[in-house]
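Incident log, entry 3
Record: Pre-mRNA-splicing factor ATP-dependent RNA helicase PRP16 (708 residues)
Problem: checksum mismatch between cached and fresh output.
Input:
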Amino acid sequence: VIGLKETGKDSARSDPETPDQAQHSESFEQIQAARKLLPAYKVKSELLRIIRDNQVVIVIGETGSGKTTQLAQFLKEDGYCNDGQSIGCTQPRRVAAMSVATRVALEMGVKLGHEVGYSIRFEDKTSHRTRIKFMTDGILLRETLMSSMLDKYSCIIMDEAHERSLNTDILFGIFKNLLSARRDLKLIITSATMNAAKFSQFFGAAPLFTIPGRTFPVQTVFSRHPVSDYVESAIVQASKIHLSFPISSGDILIFMTGQEDIEATCEGLREKLTGIYAKKKSRGSEAEELDDIDILPIYSALPADVQGRIFNSTPNKRKVVVATNIAETSLTVDGIKYVIDCGYSKLKVYNPQIGLDSLQMVPISMASANQRSGRAGRTGPGIAYRLYTEDSFFDDMYVQTIPEIQRTNLSNTLLLLKYLGFSDLISFPFVDPPPEQITISSLFELWTVGALDNFGELTKLGRQMAAFPLQPPLSKMLLNASMSGCSEEILTIVSMLSVPQIFYRPKERQEESDQARARFFVPESDHLTLLNVYAQWKANNYSASWCRRHFLQFKSLQRAKDIREQLTVLMERKNVPLVSSGSDWDVIRKCICCGYAHQAGRLSGLSKYAHLRNGLEMRVHPASALFGAGDLPSYVVYHEMLLTTNEYINMVTAVDPLWLIDYGLLFYNISRRKEEEEDQGLYADESPRSLKDSIDLAIERALMKKEI
Ligand code: ADP
Ligand code: MG
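Fresh output:
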């Protein structure tokens, strides 16, 4: 039975469609004709004129009007690349950068990576010939480290600025100075209507240019009762639409929060419709299996070739795209008539009071809800089904999404800014400044990892850390490893942490795949488990079939290998020695502890940990190697915290409490809670309130240590 299953569903899903099927059927002429119909095309000459006359222009337009795909092409045609300079276009999301670059290369009839290319973290598809470069805003921010004048660019398009991603906001501040130093550089900011006036004001009343466009009315249907399981509701709603409206009426777009619920929705919808069709068939009707519907997921961890499939259409089939908020404004799929909106998104949230980063499911904003609904009205009137009540729309949703800079850990960003020479952050020109609490807490974190000195200046370690495109805990871990003699191993771990899902867990073979995964477990550490997987894969000549046999995602591992190679080059360039600790895994765990000393927990009760700095109760994620492996270790550090109904910690490693004292000296202290109690252990110090307080505290600590 298992053998049958293996050849069935599984192989069909892991292999993308054959290239022929995946190819666009549009001819070059058809593409050019379609371009001419886009609203942006119709205002091309006015747009180019206003750009010629102004250094900064803000372009507003409905989603799908051609801002992203056309603007860069217009600029190139207008001669902005004639002196060998390039046009850079930033995107807040990796998927968008890749997808849009692919599209523009196709429209221009060039090979991706030649005249048109893209660059995202750890993946550079550009060459010396590249003149139109799509990239994430994070990449452009890094480029300003290398070349502060951005000399190679004649124009920068900052796309999707209304998203207010952290990096876009920081780039705005940097441009404010840069633009007066480089009068010849053009900055074009594209935005949905929200925030546009604010951007104009920020750049000294820069002109706004609106691309006129037409949208159709969208009927919004709220859920009458609160929805307890939005995946289930979305499946029910989508199958209802599919079965009651003719395929020719239009396609369906479902908004979910991330990979997990997207896959669950796709799978569930497939199952449900298969069931219904089978029933019909048994009643004698000729309904075939799912041959009238294409269910297509889109999220960032998906390989590029699979991502591209959302744009293909097959005649006589209804397309159901199940997406994250990438489809809100970044990507436009034509032909959508029905939108189903779960009403949530996954956000990275930082709590400065307790110094805690976490991923949280939060209600989207009203503005997002309306953007999502609007996607149904691009080519004709549409319907948006909201899987939440009207009350919750008004009561639970903010009017606008809070800009990332005001809700996220800024330590990485502040490290870059320090490196760029903005020593005084108070005077940095922010569009909206981050809350002081967050700035202080992030600076504090940088100081605790040794990136800043007691005066808030970058240390040598801090400068080295800034050179690596990694979160501070990871770069710290890597740099520390070269001194401790295990940088080969930590490098592998860091690379493995930079790719999504290593383990493959198909729904119909869960038990089997769980067993396969357990065979790689190193019971005291998920990090070492990753190292173990990589080492075994390497020992098997990086084989793809070996991965398949062991339920590992070959593509993810390949990517980890690629990232590892890139980081190796960077380490060589920065003179960071590559050394291996051989079979001594304690050194590695100690190094892991060094990176994450501020994210530690102490066993409390049978299955829970108490966060050492704030007492928060946390559970080990069921996918962890530590889960169900007998007695849990007394102290652990973790990589990531996930807040859902429970607090879960992901990627966990057992540590020796003495290491925590070594590396977390600033936080922890050995104490007896009560003299009479024998309960001895590590406790967090009272949270320092400001950088100065914490410095005083540290000096005190250091003195105390000497006395001892
Ligand atoms: P905007 O940036 O104004 O939202 P875009 O430039 O992204 O608009 O999209 C313009 C048009 O190009 C839309 O009709 C969209 O569907 C189409 N398009 C964009 N990317 C692709 C793609 N990869 N494949 C097919 N069509 C695409
Ligand atoms: Mg766009």
